[in-house]
Amino acid sequence: MKNFELTEKRAEILLVLLVSARATSFMFNKLIIGSITRFALLSLRFGMAFVLLMLLFGRQIFKNFDPKDALRGAAIGCCFFITMSCELTGVPFIASSTASFIENTAIVLVPIAEAALIRRFPQKRAIIAALTALLGVGLLSVGFPGAGSSAGLKIGRGELWLMLAACCYTASIMVTSRLSRQGNAFTMGVFQVGTQALLATIASFITGTATLPHNGTEWAMILLLAVVCTGFGFTLQPVAQSKVSAEKTSLLCAVNPMVAGLLGVLFMKESLGSAGFLGCALILLALVIGSRKGS
């Protein structure tokens, strides 16, 4: 393990695996969200993941502990928690397909925001890849079951919350990209998870929605969410982003709705339709375009 070097290419592969792992939460959430409230679910999954991470890596983390890494992790956790809170607030009012498309406009927003910060126009390749990925996510959203439940383009409460979620998602990616290069990225990832657990617990009590699962099956699904989607999917994101640019990260995050859609087809008896599968193809094409060198 000591001889393992996280190169940029390995970090990109790791990031795809992380995003894919988080995509499984879409399936588990659909199975359990009717039995437990949203903030309570987040509190349990992130809390269990944090306890597990501390049991496994606590001694290693505190061996050469830098409080600044904990603060950086807390900052990243706050950004992602705000993103997820906006998403959870808006989702009940619109179709999940619409929510997925709006939030993933971050694919385009990140390169624009990064270009504005450094005062340089984005590379043509990055623009083409981002627009191709966004089109793919749009077609994939059309393929989701229930996509037709919201006919026409209208801006309501749900759409506004998801637009805010897209902006917060953009900020989360950019903040993680910068902070992960300043210290121990793994420690930041662990404290990011702990911060989200704390904030979700506070939110569940403030909103009066603190509840617990009712049976062993629900506990098992939350445990899977904690280990796969959170313990792996969230903890290692700062590690991967320490080697990957914010623009490339936003592009790779397009894998999330694609994997979620394919899992729905395989395990939830859902159908993407021809538009959905074309969307998957466009997302893969965007990743190929984005991986090429040059302007």
Secondary structure layout plus pairing:
Layout: H1 8-32, H2 38-63, H3 67-90, H4 96-103, H5 106-118, H6 124-143, H7 157-179, H8 185-206, H9 216-232, H10 237-241, H11 246-252, H12 255-267, H13 273-291
Helix pairs in contact: 1-9, 1-12, 2-8, 2-9, 3-7, 3-8, 4-6, 4-7, 5-7, 5-11, 6-11, 6-13
H/E series, N to C?
HHHHHHHHHHHHH
Structural category: mainly alpha
Using DSSP, what is the number of strands?
Answer: 0
**Backbone shape:** globular
Give an account of the 3D structure:
The protein is globular, with a radius of gyration of 19 Å. It has about 300 residues and is an all-alpha fold. The protein has one domain. α6 (about 125-145) packs antiparallel against α13. It is built from 13 helices and no strands. The longest helix has 26 residues, at about 40-65.
